[in-house]
Amino acid sequence: MLQQSPEYRRLDRLASVKLSDSYVIEEKATRLEQRRAARIKRAYGATALGLVLAANVGAYAADVHANMELQANASIGISVLGDAHEKSDASNALVFVDGFGSYDSISLTNSLGKAYQPTVDGQLWSVNYNNAILNRTAIADKIVETAEARGVTSVSLVGYSAGGAISAELVQELTKKNIDINLIAFNSTPNGAGGLRSERQNEIGLVEKIKHIPGAQYSTPLRFLGEMAFRSGAYTAPLDGDSLPENTQTFGQNIAHFFDTAGNVRRDMRENKMPGTWLMFDQVLAIENANIKDRIEELGDLPDTKIHPTIVYLGTGAPGYDYMVDDKKSAAEIGQYAADAGLPFYTAEVPGAIHSRPDLTVDAYVKTLTSMQDSIQDSIDEQRGIAYANQLAERYATHDAHNGTNAESGTYPDGGDHAAAAPDGSVPQPEATANPNAADR
Prior knowledge:
- By secondary structure, the protein is of the alpha/beta class.
- It is 51% helix and 11% strand.
């Protein structure tokens, strides 16, 4: 049954008041009517707000569901972007792994491949996240699958920023599957969350809070806002060290570039060329949960017959400044891990490097790696020589145990020395020179 409004019930009571009090009645009735009108207005407003919220909640839920399906149907991929310079190096691949905010590593491979390939030759591969779940086993499996298809037996992992932490997590999976690792290159990689600048550490805390909002990691609007913030260098005055001097913009240019950037972000989101919020959360977690120390220790504990990789760290040198990563601190810590594990380690600074745009300073990377080329190549060759010498010694020992040898001549009963040739065609010698930076093996 419909009920009278409170104001009408009060008006009924006012009807019994004497006519002499008509002025009072009119005044009170007017006030009551005004209250009723206001209450109805509030009710309409609340109803409208409820409808808007319901519509938005429905749209939010649909958006979240669509992005969850996108993630579920996505898979990790590898793009082969170039062959080795020399045929003799075709069995090696340089695997590039980009960091936070990346959908794939294609741009990184095309840029830094020019710098690394003259030093460590091999095929050029890009790890593509493709908005799939960031899973180290899935990445390692894809690398192994591609290696088997292309005749690759060893890889060099080149990680950029958070990609360095992700690369470190791959080593255990790859060595289990008999893929040798010649080199691990950390480029501006933070040694965990503590290797970030303090401002960036605060941002990780913000991500942790956002993560608790139901469905937030699958929200397209949130991803848009995050990408606009990530690309803010395109429409704001540059931070010191974050841009080249000629990229300084006026206020008017900033406004124009803001709308250009917003349009580019919308286009990239429509064409699915950007990492989803869920992938970026995973990339942040890769930094936060990074355990580079343990991964390097595991490499030091590899059998003597396995190649022990050379570790390289490239940071930013003057006139640049890494506003994301405390690269000097991270380089020193990772260098200490390598020393403790008995692995060779080399570090250098790339003059004027820009964390968010390594493609702008490719020439500086080329010059830096060229200056390190002989040391890195000698180190990799030496580690391979040690491994092959130990493989040879193990084969001799195994044959001794089963068939017997001439202990004085060191030959087998058939008169041959049965020295196994290395993949490059050379025959390793039983005596190998120990690497001064490596532990005795």
